[in-house]
Design a protein that fits this description.
Blueprint lengths: L3 E5 L7 H8 L8 E5 L7 H10 L6 E4 L10 H6 L3 E4 L4 H11 L1 H10 L3 E5 L1 H4 L2 E6 L7 E3 L6 E6 L8 H10 L5 E4 L3 E6 L2 E7 L6 E5 L2 E4 L3 E2 L1
Parallel strand pairs: 1-5, 2-3, 2-4, 4-5, 6-8, 8-9, 11-14
Antiparallel strand pairs: 1-10, 6-7, 9-12, 10-11, 12-13
Length: 223
C-alpha cells in the first residue's frame, strides 16, 4: 500500500484541477472524502467552500467537526476515508486540538492504510516537522512541532504573502530544517515520504527547495 500526501501551498479548493488530481490518487473509484476545518475553528465558510468544490463530483464528501463534536470513534471514522483534506487557518491551534481529540493518531493510522492526506496552508504545513506560520504573530515565525510525517519544513503562500520568503530564509538560518516552498495553486506529492512530483493548477505556479544556501527552483508539471 503506497502512502501518499499531497501538500498544497494555498487555495486548493479553488482549483478544480487540484481537486481532480487528489481524487485520482484515491484507492476507490468513488472515494470517501473527509474535510478537516479545525484550523479555522470549523468555520461555516470553509465548510461551504468544501461542499461547493465537491458538488457534482462522484464522491462521498463529509467533514469532522471538533468544536461541536458529534463523532464518537474518531479513529474509525478517519480510517474509513479514502482522502482527507485539511483546510487553512491557525496551524498551532489545529495541532493542539487534534492531539487532544486523538485526530493525530487517527491520521497516522489512516495514512499507513492508504488514505491520501492533503490540504493547503495549515493543511500543507502540518505534515512536515515544521515551517513558517502566522499562528503566533501576523509578522510570521517558525512552527517546530508539526506531525513530522514528512521530514523537513514547508512554507505555503510563497507568492501571495510578501514576508514569507525572507522569514523562511531567516528561520532556516536559525535552525529550522530545510524544506519546500510552494506558491498558491501548487502542490507537492509525496509517495512513501518521498517527493515524486510537483504539480500546478496555474501555468506560472512555482515551487522551491530551500536550505541555508538559498532557494532552488523545482520542476513543476502544469495540470
Amino acid at each position: 500500500m503506497v502512502r501518499r500526501i499531497v501538500a498544497c501551498g494555498g487555495q486548493q479548493l479553488l482549483y478544480p484541477a487540484l481537486v481532480r488530481y487528489v481524487l485520482g490518487l484515491a484507492r476507490r473509484r468513488r472515494p470517501r472524502v473527509l474535510f478537516l476545518g479545525t484550523a479555522s475553528g470549523d468555520g461555516a465558510g470553509y465548510l461551504l467552500t468544501f461542499y461547493q468544490a465537491f458538488a457534482g463530483i462522484d464522491c462521498e464528501p463529509s467533514h469532522l467537526a471538533l468544536f461541536d463534536r458529534t463523532v464518537d470513534d474518531i479513529d474509525a471514522f478517519v480510517r474509513s476515508q479514502d482522502v482527507v483534506i485539511v483546510g487553512g487557518g491557525n496551524t498551532a491551534n489545529m495541532l493542539a486540538i487534534w492531539r487532544l481529540h486523538g485526530v493525530e493518531s487517527a491520521l497516522r493510522n489512516a495514512y499507513a492504510e492508504g488514505t491520501v492526506l492533503s490540504g493547503w496552508s495549515a493543511g500543507c504545513l502540518c505534515w512536515f516537522e515544521g515551517g513558517v506560520t502566522d499562528s503566533f504573530t501576523p509578522e510570521l515565525g517558525a512552527l517546530r512541532d508539526g506531525l513530522g510525517i514528512l521530514s523537513g519544513s514547508a512554507c505555503p503562500h510563497y507568492d501571495t504573502q510578501e514576508a514569507r520568503r525572507p522569514v523562511y530564509a531567516r528561520e532556516i538560518a536559525a535552525g529550522l530544517p530545510p524544506g519546500i516552498a510552494l506558491e498558491d495553486g501548487v502542490a507537492a506529492r509525496y509517495d512513501d515520504e518521498r517527493l515524486v512530483e510537483v504539480v500546478s493548477a496555474r501555468a506560472d505556479g512555482r515551487a522551491f527547495a530551500v536550505d541555508a544556501r538559498g532557494e532552488r527552483p523545482l520542476g513543476v508539471r502544469t495540470l
